[in-house]
Each structure stands twice: as structure tokens, then as C-alpha cells.
């Protein structure tokens, strides 16, 4: 295929999705036992955009986020149906290596959860189990690069042997982001990453999200509509397990098409 036609194809893909398609979900249902938490959700996650999932408590944002790296597999009662792909490949397919998948689609949780180990070890652990570094200098380079990308290097470079749990909450969360980055992910899922942080630590994480945008496809669940407006380019509004509306963040917040979205963003419920 000529370079021109490859470019044409890429342009068309961009036009179709407002970005390069990274993950797709089609007709996804999630059940906990007999209770249905997600109903028929279809959405595209694009490379260049930060995608925010918003909606009232219990609407299924976290449940849906966790389908994107099969984190729901760890919940015995959870059952997922429908199709979810990463670079066109079915992530629920029999030949998908779940450990590999969770490195490619990393996750940062609501409460910072560093291992009770040194700062260095927190970052080096993943690359070690995935065999990404063959010698100490390689590992040192991965640890430094990951901490730099997470905006933490300057604060910790002289105390890499200190425990990760001794850092402030905001630093711990950036350490968890560095840990996700260390295994070279393609997508980073963030489940309310700032809800346990003060406003200054929150601002740093938001700044970091801006810096990481494009290098990684990012999906963030947030309760905070201002945060969604600040950090994302695409927003998905969930209500009672359904995806009510998905579009450009600017449209969702200024010109929503659905009454339920409008009611939520104007504070009528939530
Ligand atoms: N492990 C579980 N077992 C059973 N039900 C669950 C489980 N996790 C979530 N649920 C239920 O699934 C529904 C969706 O929950 P989920 O946590 O995904 O919503 P959410 O929008 O992320 O809520 P919040 O904003 O409060 O975190 C809720 O009714 C919840 O009670």
C-alpha cells in the first residue's frame, strides 16, 4: 500500500472517531449475580483524547471502566457480555493474556495504593515481572523515566530507598501513576484518582494528565464535573447503568442533547 493511501486511511479513521481508535466497546452488559449494573454500552476510546466518565453515584462508571482491562474478572459474581477490543483485538478472547492486558491497559485507583516497599521497588516491580530490563542500569533508566513522566523524580530522586508509603497522598498517587507507566502501557484507566487528595495535589495530577495526553489513551472516572471539563476532550455521561450521552466535552457541558445530561450538569440530581 502506498504511503498516500495509508495516510488517507488514517485520516478517515480520525474523522470517524475524532481521534485514532484505541479501544472499542460494543453492546456491553455487566451483571453482578442477577443484578445488571451496565446495560448495552457502546463507546470508542481514542488515543489523542482524555475521556471522562461522569454520572451520579452507583450509575456504573467504575464497573464499566473495569471492563476495559478485565479487572471485573477478580469479582466472582461479575459477568461481562458484549465485545471489547484493544487495537481491534477482543480482550475477552480465549487467547488474551490477562496479565499482559493489564500492563497494556494500566489502572490507577481512587486511594493511592503503593506497595509497602521502597519508592524504587514500587516502580521496578512491574518491569521486573514482565522482563523489561535485563540489567540494573536498564532498570534504573526505566525507574527514572517513569518517575519523571509522573512528575515525581525531582521530589524523590535522593530518597529512592525510602518507603513509598511514607510519601504524601499526592506523591503516592503520582508514584502509582509511575508504576503504571513503568510497564509501558498504551491505555491508562484512572478511577477517581483525585478523590482522596487535597486541591494542590489534585491540581498536580490534573496537570500530569495534560502532559500524558497523547502518549497514552487516558480514561478517567470522576465525580467532579469541573474536573471532567478541565482534563478531558471527550465525556461520557452514565445514568442507571446506561450510557446516556457521549461526545466532545465542550458540547456535553454547554450544549447537551439529552435532558438527563442537562439535568445532571446543571445540578438537578447527582
Ligand atoms: N462487587 C460488586 N458486587 C455487587 N454489586 C456491585 C459491585 N460493585 C458495584 N456494584 C453495584 O453496581 C452498580 C454500579 O456501581 P459502580 O461502583 O460501578 O458505580 P459508580 O458509578 O462507579 O459509583 P460511585 O460513583 O459511587 O463509585 C451499583 O449498584 C453497585 O452497588
Question: What are the salient characteristics of this protein?
Answer:
270 residues; alpha/beta; Rossmann fold; 6-stranded mixed beta sheet; 4-stranded antiparallel beta sheet; 25% strand; globular; disordered N terminus; binds adenosine-5'-triphosphate; Phosphate transport system ATP-binding protein; phosphate transmembrane transporter activity; ATP hydrolysis activity; transport; phosphate transport
Which helices and strands, and how do they pair?
Elements (H helix, E strand, L loop, with lengths): L2 H15 L3 E12 L2 E12 L3 E5 L6 H7 L10 E9 L2 E2 L7 H7 E4 L10 H11 L6 H14 L3 H4 L12 H14 L4 E5 L7 H14 L4 E5 L3 H7 L2 E6 L2 E7 H6 L4 H7 L5
Parallel strand pairs: 3-8, 3-9, 6-7, 7-8
Antiparallel strand pairs: 1-2, 1-4, 4-5, 9-10
Helix pairs in contact: 4-5, 4-7, 5-7, 7-8
The structure holds adenosine-5'-triphosphate.
Function: Part of the ABC transporter complex PstSACB involved in phosphate import. Responsible for energy coupling to the transport system.
Main location: membrane
InterPro entries: AAA+_ATPase (IPR003593), ABC_transporter-like_ATP-bd (IPR003439), ABC_transporter-like_CS (IPR017871), P-loop_NTPase (IPR027417), PstB-like (IPR005670)
Amino acid at each position: 500500500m502506498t504511503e498516500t493511501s495509508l495516510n488517507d486511511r488514517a485520516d478517515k479513521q480520525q474523522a470517524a472517531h475524532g481521534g485514532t481508535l484505541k479501544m472499542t466497546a460494543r453492546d456491553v452488559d455487566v451483571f453482578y449475580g442477577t443484578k445488571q449494573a451496565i446495560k448495552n454500552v457502546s463507546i470508542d476510546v481514542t488515543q489523542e483524547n482524555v475521556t471522562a466518565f461522569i454520572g451520579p453515584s452507583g450509575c456504573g462508571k467504575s464497573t464499566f471502566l473495569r471492563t476495559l482491562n478485565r479487572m471485573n474478572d477478580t469479582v466472582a459474581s461479575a459477568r461481562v457480555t458484549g465485545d471489547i477490543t484493544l487495537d481491534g483485538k477482543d480482550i475477552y478472547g480465549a487467547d488474551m493474556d490477562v496479565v499482559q492486558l493489564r500492563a497494556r491497559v494500566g489502572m490507577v485507583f481512587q486511594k493511592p495504593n503503593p506497595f509497602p516497599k521502597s519508592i524504587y521497588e514500587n516502580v521496578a516491580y512491574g518491569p521486573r515481572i514482565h522482563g523489561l530490563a535485563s540489567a540494573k542500569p536498564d532498570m534504573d533508566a526505566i525507574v527514572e523515566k517513569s518517575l519523571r513522566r509522573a512528575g515525581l523524580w525531582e521530589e524523590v530522586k535522593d530518597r529512592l530507598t525510602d518507603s513509598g508509603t511514607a510519601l504524601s497522598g499526592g506523591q503516592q498517587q503520582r508514584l502509582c501513576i509511575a508504576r503504571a507507566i513503568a510497564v509501558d502501557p498504551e491505555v491508562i484507566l484512572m478511577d477517581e484518582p483525585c478523590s482522596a487528595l487535597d486541591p494542590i495535589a489534585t491540581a498536580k495530577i490534573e496537570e500530569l494528565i495534560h502532559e500524558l495526553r497523547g502518549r497514552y489513551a487516558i480514561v478517567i472516572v470522576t465525580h467532579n464535573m469541573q474536573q471532567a471539563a478541565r482534563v478531558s476532550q471527550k465525556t461520557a455521561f452514565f445514568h442507571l447503568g446506561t450510557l446516556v450521552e457521549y461526545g466532545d466535552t465542550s458540547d456535553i457541558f454547554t450544549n447537551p442533547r439529552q435532558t438527563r445530561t442537562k439535568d445532571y450538569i446543571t445540578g438537578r440530581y447527582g
